[in-house]
Design brief:
The structure is a single chain. This protein is an alpha+beta fold. The protein has two domains: 158 residues, Beta-Lactamase; 66 residues, Arc Repressor Mutant, subunit A (Orthogonal Bundle). The protein is built from nine helices and five strands. It has a five-stranded antiparallel beta sheet. Strand 4 and strand 5 form a beta hairpin.
């Protein structure tokens, strides 16, 4: 495939991603585009991060799904390594017996010689991986470059899905709650130390100050902690 044909295929891919109404359809389109455009690519899958662990959301062939599942079951393989280390992993299956013994044996039995796993990154987060499988041999540098483009499309598709937005908002809200409670706990401890009072009395002082000043308990806690830090 010429460079012009590759560009054209990737442009069609972008159009597919933007036009699909569901995340599943968009990811399936990306996986199919990988098989059509990537030199030596016989099967592809897209794994998404579900509760901190990848799970296959799209696959173009049974062999891709099977080899993804082998990795999940054995807790080893290029997909998991790419996801955990946030790095592109190009694997020659013949040489991978020591690194990924379970995966290498399973891939060899299915005639897979090359694997390419690329993390799909959105900001600082890894939302999944694009996994490519070849029966023709290891992938080359051109495939790595194209895989990066396709993985970026995976991240775009995921970021536009309502499910991802809701999950991200939930995590961010939970993190803020933890940070806010930590500030209140620190302020309570400071009041106990400076006023010589119990936990219940310190919490009462925070509530009284908040009511008197028409502020939230968090606002009062932040002021107490900031005053203490500035006085150090």
């Amino acid at each position: 495939m010429s460079a012009e044909e590759v560009v054209s295929a990737l442009e069609r891919l972008a159009s597919v991603v933007q036009s699909q109404r569901t995340l599943g359809a968009a990811l399936a389109g990306i996986a199919e585009a990988a098989v059509l455009t990537m030199p030596g690519c016989d099967a592809a899958s897209v794994a998404l991060s579900l509760e901190g662990r990848p799970a296959t959301a799209a696959a173009t062939a049974r062999v891709a799904l099977e080899l993804d599942l082998v990795q999940y079951d054995s807790n080893e393989g290029p997909c998991l390594t790419s996801y955990r280390n946030i790095e592109t992993l190009r694997l020659n299956v013949v040489e991978a017996e020591d690194t990924f013994p379970h995966f290498a044996r399973a891939a060899g039995k299915r005639g897979i010689l090359g694997v390419l796993s690329v993390p799909a990154k959105w900001g600082a987060d890894v939302v999944g991986t694009l996994n490519l499988y070849s029966r023709q041999g290891p992938f080359d540098e051109t495939a790595v470059s194209m895989g990066s483009v396709l993985a970026a499309q995976v991240a775009i598709a995921v970021s536009r899905s309502p499910e991802f937005t809701a999950a991200r908002d939930t995590v961010e809200h939970a993190q803020r709650d933890v940070e806010d409670q930590t500030r209140v706990d620190v302020a309570t401890g400071l009041l106990m130390a400076t006023q010589g009072c119990t936990v219940e009395q310190a919490e009462g002082l925070l509530r009284e100050a908040a009511d008197h000043e028409a502020q939230s308990i968090l606002d009062v806690a932040n002021r107490i902690v900031d005053q203490h830090n500035n006085a150090r």
